[in-house]
Specification:
Layout: H1 16-20, E1 26-27, E2 50-55, E3 70-77, E4 80-86, E5 94-100, E6 104-112, E7 115-122, E8 125-133, H2 137-153, H3 190-202, E9 207-212, E10 215-217, H4 223-235, E11 238-240, E12 243-247, E13 251-256, E14 261-263, E15 271-277, E16 283-288, E17 295-301, E18 306-312, H5 316-322
Antiparallel strand pairs: 1-2, 2-3, 3-4, 4-5, 6-7, 6-15, 7-8, 9-12, 10-11, 11-14, 12-13, 13-15, 16-17, 17-18
Length: about 325
């Protein structure tokens, strides 16, 4: 059985798993491809829809065949999502989290160059974030698509498309916002436009609901102290990043940057996508941002988890988000 520490350099028999090891997330389709650490839980992946393994964040030169080379095994099957996490201190060397489909609330995937993350929000559980190499975004995308397919096809009352028992809209989705919308103002956010086109190609039934470009914001600060705060912001500005909202009568997708707020003038390379079924939205509230003028914070209450989205005051994004209110 591989270990977490590895063997002495002169005792390193080669294995098929070691030969394939690298920074990539790999699909698991055969019993031999299941990392040895996780085989007590999953001996054969044949019964699952999607299984992927996420490697440890180590260079290949620091790995050897006697190590447990994978940090996570993610399994999507009829029960939902199961995440096995390598944890040397735990009995058996890993911990298990089972997240049934009807308890999944939202997914967020983000990439900043090669630093990628998948975050899963579920009822009654802390957010689960799995880091991975951005070169494997397509492989992780297979798992995301399968989870989305399952939560949208869930036939139980209140959990399927637009189920009003779980906060979904009984009228079939958000109406078009009362503002002209388009992507023209996102000339400086071409990566968000590219992500929108990618989402539309995968989901041709999606509609563009709103888009806003990034913009520098100023604080509410008043009085003598406010003058200093505004001077500091003039030298080191705060920028609210742009976003694109799209959706259909079952799902909302928010395309954004990993960090909504960025201080200074450094370039931003990240892209992110937050996906949630409309049926999960229970409440929508809007408040002025406590620090910055011209910004409102829209909070989507998903039943135990709140997603907060800062948007320009009175914008089409605000209208589109408010329209998801059950």
């Amino acid at each position: 059985m591989p270990t977490d520490r590895g063997a002495a350099p002169h005792h390193r028999p080669r294995t098929e798993e070691f030969d394939a090891f690298g920074p990539w997330v790999l699909p698991v389709r055969t019993p031999q491809e299941v990392p040895p650490l996780f085989r007590p839980h999953l001996a054969d992946p044949a019964g699952a829809a999607v299984v992927v393994k996420v490697p440890r964040g180590i260079d290949r030169r620091d790995a050897d065949p006697t190590m447990n080379l994978y940090d996570y095994l993610l399994i999507v099957d009829g029960a939902g999502l199961t995440v096995l996490t390598r944890t040397p201190a735990a009995p058996g060397g890993f911990i298990t989290r089972n997240l049934p489909i009807d308890r999944l609330l939202a997914l967020e995937e983000s990439v900043n160059l090669l630093d990628a993350r998948l975050t899963v929000h579920a009822v009654g559980a802390p957010a689960l974030t799995v880091p991975f190499n951005g070169a494997s975004r397509d492989t992780v995308g297979l798992l995301v698509r399968e989870l989305r397919r399952r939560w949208l096809d869930d036939p139980r009352p209140g959990h399927g498309p637009g189920g009003p028992q779980d906060g979904g809209r009984a009228d079939g989705g958000p109406p078009p916002p009362p503002f002209p919308i388009g992507l023209g103002e996102l000339d400086a956010d071409l990566s968000l436009v590219a992500l929108y086109r990618e989402v539309l190609a995968e989901n041709p039934g999606m509609t563009l609901l709103a888009a806003h470009a990034r913009g520098v914001v100023v604080p509410w600060a008043e009085g003598p102290g406010g003058v200093l705060v505004k001077m500091l912001h003039a030298m080191w500005p705060m920028t609210l990043q742009g976003a694109v909202l799209c959706g259909d009568d079952r799902e909302l997708q928010v395309l954004h940057r990993r960090h909504w707020w960025v201080r200074g003038v450094r370039p931003v390379h990240s892209i992110a996508r937050t996906v949630l079924p409309l049926a999960r939205i229970r409440t929508v509230t809007v408040e002025d941002h406590p620090v910055y003028r011209g910004v409102e914070v829209v909070t989507l209450g998903l039943g135990g988890v709140d997603l907060t989205l800062p948007v320009p005051t009175g914008s089409a994004a605000r209208a589109a988000l408010v329209a998801t209110r059950p």
